[in-house]
Structures are given as C-alpha cells and as structure tokens.
Amino acid sequence: MFADKNDAALYDLFAHMFQAHPWHGVSPGERAPEVVNTYIEVVPTDGVKYELNKITGYLSVDRPQRFSSLCPTPYGFIPQTFCGKRVAELSQQRESEDQIRGDGDPLDICVLTEKAVTHGDFVVRAKPIGGLRMIDHKEADDKIIAVLIDDVAYGHMENISDCPSGLIDRLQHYFLSYKQLPNETSRHVEIAAVYDRAEAMDVITRSMLDYRERYGAPEERMGKLRSLLGGANTSEQGKH
What we know:
Blueprint: H1 5-17, E1 36-42, E2 48-52, E3 59-64, E4 75-78, H2 85-95, E5 101-102, E6 107-112, E7 122-136, E8 139-140, E9 143-148, H3 165-177, E10 189-196, H4 197-215, H5 221-238
Parallel strand pairs: 5-8, 6-9
Antiparallel strand pairs: 1-4, 1-7, 2-3, 4-6, 7-8, 7-9, 7-10
C-alpha cells in the first residue's frame, strides 16, 4: 500500500493510537469491487434513522423514523466511495437524462443476512450482487444490494437474479416511501432500474474513482502528513 517505509510506520502508529474514520480511514477492501467493506449505520429494528456525521466520524441521529416502514436489511455505505460525476454519468447514460448529478455522499449499500443484528456502527465484508438505480430530486443515489460473506441463507448468491423477488420489492418500497409524507401526492424519488452484479461493480468502481478525485489518494495521506509534520518541526527550530 505504501511506497515509503516511513509512511507505513506512521500509518501503523496511527492505527494503534486512533480509531479510523469510517468513511475516510477504512479501506473499501483489497478485493473491491468484488468484495467490499461495508460500514453499517442502520439495522432493521431501528426506530431512529442513524447517519454517520461526515465531519466527526461519529454515528449520529438523523431523525426518528416517521412511519412504520423500517429498512428490511442492515444498511450503510462503502468506505472511500463518493457519488460524483462518474456515478452520475452512468445514470445519465442508462436513463438518457442529462440533468442527473451525484448526490455527494458515500455509496449506499444494503446487506442481506439471515442474522438478527441489534445495532449499527460496525464494519462487515459483503459481496455485491446487484443494485437499485435510485434518482432522488435529479441526484444519483444508487443502492447497492449485497450479501454478507459466508451467510448461511444468502451467502451463496452471486447475482440479483438469485435473490427472492419479494425481498427486492420490499427494498424498493422502503426507499420509495420512507421520505414521503402521507399527504404528498407527487413523488420526487424514483427507482429507474434494478441492475445485476456486473453493473453494481461498475457503480462501485466509479464511486471509488470519484472519491479519489474529490479527496485524493488515501495511500498518499501519510506521506503528506509526514511532510507537514516535518515542515512544522523546521518552523519551530527556526524560532530558536
């Protein structure tokens, strides 16, 4: 990962001293996009919508769930991803719509598992099998669908076609309805398509590239930090 051994040593020191930021400090995984690390924010029993505070890295309360519809699966995002221009371009190409932009958030992911998970704020390894091309107020807001690695009930699935159609319907219903008030007649959210594993991996790859363009290469951060620390030391020495 690191070309310079001093960068590797500094990274190792930080790993022992500080908890990694779930979005910026955790890798999407050595095998991404085939297998991805996933940070879980919300689980099916949550009556409160939790969301990572992008600045602090703490899981925070976004809002109480307004209605009885709860997310059918553990739900979160893939670290070091960003829905920017490349993700938006794919939606534009598929939907022949030139006004779509990225939503500016990490790439969302739902993880299918037979296990009852009682709380969020943890990382799992998941295998993408497809996704929902969701467009929210002209913003690309894709939802990757994945299975928990080695899950007894779902782990064998390789593609969205292996997944029960009723579960996909349930996910679509949740994402189409969880923001909508009962008295609203117009819907600003649409799911334009359900896509397969190959497309899901394309979306993930694009989001990883969008992240690197927006935030820089993660493997270069320790070198930049070491350079800044070295510059600070030089400045301090110059004062004496």
